[in-house]
What we know:
Helix content is 35%, strand content 24%. With 614 residues, the protein is an alpha/beta fold. It folds into three domains: 3-246, Glutamine Phosphoribosylpyrophosphate, subunit 1, domain 1, CATH 3.60.20.10; 251-446, Glucose-6-phosphate isomerase like protein, domain 1 (Rossmann fold); 456-605, Rossmann fold (3-Layer(aba) Sandwich).
Amino acid sequence: MCGIVAYLGNREASPVLIKGLQRLEYRGYDSAGIAVIEDSLEVYKKKGKVKELEDLIQKENLTGTIGIGHTRWATHGEPNDVNAHPHYSSNKKLALIHNGIIENYAAIKKDLISKGHEFQSETDSEVFIHFVEDIQKHNECTLEEAVRIALTKVVGAYAIVIISQDNPNQLIAARKGSPLVIGIGANNEEFFLASDATPIIEYTKDVVYLNDEEIAIINRNGNISIKNIEDIAQNPYIQTLDMELEAIEKGGYDYFMLKEIFEQPRSVADCMRGRLVSNKDHAALGGIRKHVDDLVNANRIIIVACGTSWHAGLVAEYVIEELTRTPVEVEYASEFRYRNPIINKGDVLLAISQSGETADTLAAIEMAKAKGAVILGICNVVGSSIARASDEGAYTHAGPEIGVASTKAFTAQLTVLNILALMLARHKKTLSDNQFKELTEEMESIPGKIQEVLDLNGQIEEISKLYKDAKNFLYLGRGYNFPVALEGALKLKEISYIHAEGYPAAEMKHGPIALIDKEMPVVVIATRDSSYDKIVSNIQEVKARKGKVIAIVTKGDALIPKMVDHVIEVPSCHETIMPLISVIPLQLLSFHIAVMRGCNVDQPRNLAKSVTVE
């Protein structure tokens, strides 16, 4: 969950590192640091944001052309200057940055202490660089070989980059379970390493994604070699990034989150382009061609995901079962992987992840694959670990999402999942031609309808002013809108730090109704669908207890506006697709409340964008 950046080339390294860390700050912002080699190897690090580090080194004249940088999300050891990366070896001739967790670090540390090593930090990462130093010293081997030996003995996940004062012309990098991408400059004259492509795109579009248990040795002479942990040479596969620099800039918005909310008409349209054409009765995902028959004949579909992606999976369960009559189970990947689930041949596992790097989801994939399930991935990042671990899959094409709280990723995932359901229904003949055409036409209208909701931003901001100081929120929905209630509550919790809970509206009477009084705002997703009469009754129950109700209703509703305190009208559409629309007001509500409370919307406390550790 930390951000890694490194540079080797002809330009000064420190400006490249600082800019790269700023691009990666959404991955971790407890502390930051860089190491640069000039006459000696110098490390600079600071608790807090990258700006704190930038201020620290401003007076330093750092002209070195090789360096590494890191922005941290703390796992072992509290956020402070000492625990920040990079970490030195004992002799201060090596420095390391690390993303991941070394699970057996305590045993290694105990052994190293017995050999005289002294540690400055509480981190597992410092243990690793001391371990490499110790191996090199006692085996009289190269640094490359010492790193390889160390990696065969550690347990856990890692993305690492190491530099050595004794060889200022070389970077050594490796990964297992945590992402690492290498950017190759023109004529192989410079190299950029990072946790994802955002720090690299400014300089080059030619990249190599390291695979698990691969080690890259990068030299200033333009030579890059990749070996696996067994010391067998690998052929690096150079890919071209499909990303523009403008996509990772704020583009005139004050916040990435607001920009990404307002990008949704375009991102949903991009996600559908070429995959859904109503006038040609076409619904297909090009990335899932070889395994269509596996989907059609599946005993069941198991969806694994975490966080917002799990909510998208819940919506998909409703949609797929309704349209295709295929049994669907939705699992938290973090729970699924640690029990002994029943998985058989004939099952299809659908893994959903914005980053494509979620550690628990990756582990669930490997377990299901070992038991014979077909693996289909849905993610946003091209070349990500989940994309490569899946048998087939689909990209959401939402573009980079920098804000930690997912918004456009959620609606893009819903779009892909709806297309998948329509594609499967077409093959299984569970929809009539008229039903299929109606749904595809409804899907094509969604970008315009999302824009209609975004045009209500001012109204939603005014409602937010009334509830910015609330201590608790309750979100209620039924059917397809129940997962939307969960997602709305999650967004508010993530960025405003207000306690919020999402519930199926009927479950309110099984406990949460005890909390309702005049101080409790209740957001009810009450669009006109098959559960409409029931949700009206639930609203009456809340109002009878003096709760404040903010209702998301279908445009033209004449009943609910007479009952509630605030109404946000959204366009009408088929109930299977409504979550794509009904979630938008909830994103805006959480955004405005968080801004009014003075919260850091793009980088909420204790959270990072990609959960690449367990």
